[in-house]
Amino acid sequence: MSEDESGEMRDVLEHLQSKGFNGCLICGQHLFGVGPPQEIVFAQQDTAVMPVMCVNCGHVIFVSVLHLRPESV
Ligand SMILES: [Zn+2]
Q1: CA of 44 to the centre of ligand 1 (A)
Q2: pLDDT tens, 29-43?
Q3: Cα of 32 to ligand 1 centre, how many Å?
Q4: Residue 59 CB: number of other CB atoms within 10 A?
Q5: 40: CA distance to ligand 1 center in Å?
Q6: How confident is the model at residue 54 (pLDDT cuts 50, 70, 90)?
Q7: What does each C-alpha distance from 20 to 1, 3, 53, 64 come to in angstroms?
């Protein structure tokens, strides 16, 4: 179970870094916690997002799981 969680965290952070993400936008630190996927209802498309929270200041960003599927990149 813990292996799956660490795998998800690494994938999300690797994805963000591959898109130019370089630390927390608010405080600049590089330690993040990744929460379980959350279902979000949008007007045009329902999707799940993964919350990524800065462990230093608590700033939270959401990453769509659509971004984490290799076939959709
Ligand atoms: Zn921060």
Answers
A1: 31
A2: 999 999 999 998 877
A3: 8
A4: 15
A5: 23
A6: very high
A7: 29, 26, 17, 16
